[in-house]
């Protein structure tokens, strides 16, 4: 709420900065509830005795509809305006939360899957709108500024998502499932009303009326980057979504606080690294991204960072296989994975906004985040199934193979 209030009350700020603050504040509020909801669902249904595969299935519709929403949502954003798609996303999240604020006996697998489907649509409408808007608020040709604004938006979002994980475990402990859901829906409703009042009406509306067939990108760079993004996020979620929290709870006997705290710390740290990526100078990040030489990232940069990331999941899997200080290996290894993954994600987020056209920018960004959602879908299903059948070690080997695929695809980027 702080950013939203600042945007409304400060006359010294330019219109572009005010809109950026409203969009970022909107995105932050949504992300906080989204992260908390995910942790609430994982921990609550694990507590009820659901298997890892069944927990993964609760998110199946969330990810499937995320794929569809990003593909169609980019077209809607270009047709209706990004303010409308962003506010529709907020309203749908409030409704999805309301669906879960029912007696426990009504929370069947199918019912929760439907609620999660609405939440998935809401999340990707909101994210697509926020990322597309930044392209329109930065002057054309100001690539360095674009990189900084995208990095701040993306990194801060992930830091707040991590805080949401912690919040989910805390609220489950203090208010139980239903109480936590009601509180989040109420706070998000306040943000939604404020956003309806303050967000510019025609932001992102295409001058040329977009046709539905335009949802499929024709740019080879965007296609290659989208495919790389799919494998990158599949590599994260194959161990992160279900396998890791259940492994920590079962193998190390961690309680809700410890599990949500670790997951939260991981995502917060990952978000912080994303936010500062453009500003890093004098170390390996600055040298490779070229930022300390006044340059911005290229496809070559994305390839190099993906190649570094490929090694980390395999190293953790080897530590598990040889029973080498398992707890320390997982915690330290995944912290390294998070830092390098954050640089990869930040680079991708900048490149898609840079590659996208100005008129109907949401068409290209929506297509890209469709691939992102497809990677999450694949990773989520595999996270439950592979962990239940073969364990965390197998999840990590698949993660390494997925990153290697993203690395090869990055060679095609301009």
Could you characterize the architecture of this molecule?
The chain is an all-alpha fold and 414 residues long. It is built from 15 helices and no strands. Helix 6 runs antiparallel to helix 14 (361-390) and helix 12 (299-321) runs antiparallel to helix 15. The two termini are 39 Å apart. Residues 4-12 and 281-294 have low confidence and may be disordered.
- The average pLDDT score comes to 81
| Fold-level CATH name | Growth Hormone, Chain: A
The global form is globular
Largest sheet: none
Rg result? 20 Å
Q: Please, how many domains?
A: 1
CATH top level assignment: Mainly Alpha
Secondary-structure element sequence?
HHHHHHHHHHHHHHH
Helix content: over 70%
The computed structural class is mainly alpha
Termini Cα gap:
39 Å
Classified in CATH, the superfamily is: MFS general substrate transporter like domains
Output the number of helix runs: 15
Layout of strands and helices, then pairs:
Blueprint: H1 2-9, H2 15-47, H3 52-58, H4 60-80, H5 82-100, H6 109-137, H7 143-198, H8 220-240, H9 243-251, H10 256-276, H11 284-289, H12 299-321, H13 326-355, H14 361-390, H15 392-410
Helix pairs in contact: 1-2, 2-5, 2-6, 2-7, 3-14, 4-5, 4-6, 4-14, 5-6, 5-7, 6-7, 6-14, 7-10, 7-13, 8-13, 8-14, 8-15, 10-13, 12-13, 12-15, 14-15
What would you say about this model in short?
This protein is 80% helix and 0% strand. It contains 15 helices and no strands.
Structural key phrases:
414 residues; Growth Hormone, Chain: A; globular
